[in-house]
Design goal:
The protein is of the alpha/beta class and about 210 residues long. It has helices spanning about 20-30, 55-65, 80-90, 105-120, 135-140, 155-160, 185-195, and strands spanning about 10, 95-100, 125-130, 150, 165-170, 185. About 35% of the residues are buried.
């Protein structure tokens, strides 16, 4: 990812822009797996809680297969995400918005991810797809000073802040045990936090 002079808004995808579990859990059921929780009931990011009959290797294999499936390319947008991104595009016309997602290294996964984001109306400037569980530090460290990051995993938020980037933790049931000084429970709160953190040229919107 190239370095840019103006700040960048970097966004995770699964659990921030798109409803990953809302696609993954139904897919598991279609594959004949017994799932112990529905998507909205997953309260820990350890997927062994919903797949107790699978060991770690089997779970990783399933996640990889899912990322190459048609379901992965048709995940729903989280409520308000598309509208908030579009509004930021209007308010901050010079802002670059990028996705940094650890979804898998397969070319099929990359194509699914990009097609899905486009299909849901996310007009992003760049999409970087890292291997499953990939460390985002290197990519985040390349972004210019003043950039802002949004992620649903506390470990990624911590990595971003370790390289000097203000970062918002997007609340999901599986990160309820984590706390952070920049915490958003929905995209209305995320939008307001991003507005306050960004220092880029913007156009003031006036009521009609």
């Amino acid at each position: 990812m190239a370095r840019h002079e103006l700040p960048v808004l970097a966004l995770d995808v699964d659990g921030v822009l798109l409803d990953y579990l809302g696609g993954f859990v139904p897919w598991l059921k279609e594959q004949g797996h017994h799932v112990t929780k529905e998507a909205h009931e997953v309260d820990d990011w350890d997927l062994s809680n919903i797949l107790p009959h699978c060991d770690d290797d089997q779970t990783v294999e399933l996640i990889g297969r899912f990322s190459e499936s048609d379901h992965f390319g048709h995940l729903s947008a989280l409520p308000g995400a598309r509208e908030a991104v579009a509004l930021l595009r209007t308010e901050f016309p010079d802002l670059r918005m990028v996705a940094i997602t650890s979804a898998g290294h397969s070319p099929v996964t990359l194509r699914n991810r990009c097609d899905n984001l486009t299909r849901r109306g996310f007009a992003l400037d760049d999409v970087t797809v890292l291997p499953l569980g990939g460390d985002k530090r290197e990519h985040l460290s390349r972004l210019p000073k003043g950039s802002v990051f949004v992620d649903d995993l506390f470990k990624n938020v911590s990595v971003a802040e370790s390289v000097g980037m203000p970062s918002i933790l997007y609340r999901q049931p599986y990160n309820a045990k984590d706390t952070h000084h920049l915490l958003a429970h929905n995209w209305v709160e995320t939008l307001n936090l991003v507005r306050g953190l960004l220092h880029v040229p913007h156009r003031v919107l006036r009521a009609a």
